Automatic annotation (TrEMBL):
Lineage: Bacteria, Candidatus Azamiibacteriota
GO cellular component, one term: plasma membrane
Subcellular localization: Cell membrane
Principal location listed in the UniProt entry: membrane
InterPro entries reported in the protein's UniProt record: AA-Vitamin_Transporters, EamA_dom, EmrE-like
Protein name from the UniProt record: EamA domain-containing protein
Lineage: superkingdom: Bacteria
SUPFAM superfamilies attached to this UniProt entry: Multidrug resistance efflux transporter EmrE
Length: 286
């Protein structure tokens, strides 16, 4: 399977993951327990896949460094977004943070010396525009007192978000993919466990919430493993400058799933943005 179709699979998986995560939070699940469970699920699946394929380890130190770096960047990105959302509504935070794809593309073109056609460049611009505008469709909250701190944090989140994609590219080219996932999620579990233990001491969690949180975590973990394995496989042969914009469209999948499940109709603006994103993807394939 080539990089393009692997990217589509990964985008669909990550979009579905985001929808399920939001659904879990909406149902009152403990977000730290959901996150911890999904990461543990990915870790177990990665270990099984790693052992099944022969347990070949290459570039051990380099893999450990990249794994720790990715886990740390993921934590910084998540923490930054949550902090920014304390000061700004989602329809202002996410359009800013989603522009990290532009930084990733520029890095790939300038430092990785990737080359793209004019049509592909137009496709990238179309996708970035669609992603930013669809994020602006998010509902506003009326209790915000916006200030410069929220904007500053949102712009700072761009750096770890872009660095995550760049780290994945180096990992795909230089490490055993399954072992990299094992190392990455091991570090991520350590970070998430600390957060969960602090939360658990502060709040008593009912058995029903715990059970639902674990169920959502298991499902999200399976989907995340499929998505992450697909994107790392795609980055082995595909250009980061083309794959990163496709991944940015996972938000489209999240929106569409929300519309389908909750039986809501797409408005004309949203439908147009979906068509624009599809148009951009087609141009990337030409």
């Amino acid at each position: 399977m080539n990089w393009f179709f692997l990217s589509i699979i990964a985008t669909s998986a990550f979009g579905t993951q985001s929808f399920l995560y939001k659904s879990a939070v909406a149902r009152g699940c403990n977000k730290f327990l959901v996150t911890l469970t999904f990461m543990a699920t990915v870790e177990l699946l990665a270990i099984f896949s790693f052992l099944y394929q022969g347990a070949h380890i290459s570039q051990l130190l380099f893999t450990a460094i990249l794994g720790f770096l990715f886990a740390s960047l993921f934590w910084l990105k998540t923490l930054g977004q949550l902090k920014a959302l304390e000061y700004l509504p989602t329809n202002k935070v996410f359009p800013i943070t989603s522009s990290s794809v532009a930084v990733t593309v520029i890095y790939a073109l300038v430092l990785l010396k990737e080359s793209i056609t004019p049509l592909q460049l137009f496709g990238i611009l179309s996708i970035v525009l669609a992603g930013v505008l669809i994020n602006r469709e998010s509902k506003k909250r009326s209790d915000y007192h916006e200030n410069k701190i929220g904007f500053l944090i949102s712009f700072l989140v761009i750096l770890p978000a872009a660095a995550m994609e760049i780290t994945n590219k180096y990992a795909a080219l230089n490490t055993n993919i399954n072992f990299f996932i094992v190392v990455t999620y091991l570090f991520s579990i350590l970070i998430s466990s600390s957060s969960y233990l602090v939360t658990r001491k502060a709040n008593q969690i009912s058995k029903n919430i715990t059970r639902d949180s674990i169920k959502f975590g298991l499902l999200i973990g399976i989907i995340n493993f499929i998505g992450y394995l697909s994107i790392l496989s795609a980055l082995k042969t595909g250009h980061l400058s083309l794959i990163a914009p496709i991944l940015a469209l996972s938000v489209i999948i999240t929106v569409l799933l929300a519309k389908i499940v909750h039986k809501e109709e797409l408005n004309i603006r949203q439908f147009g943005l979906v068509l624009l994103s599809v148009f951009g993807i087609v141009l990337l394939r030409i």
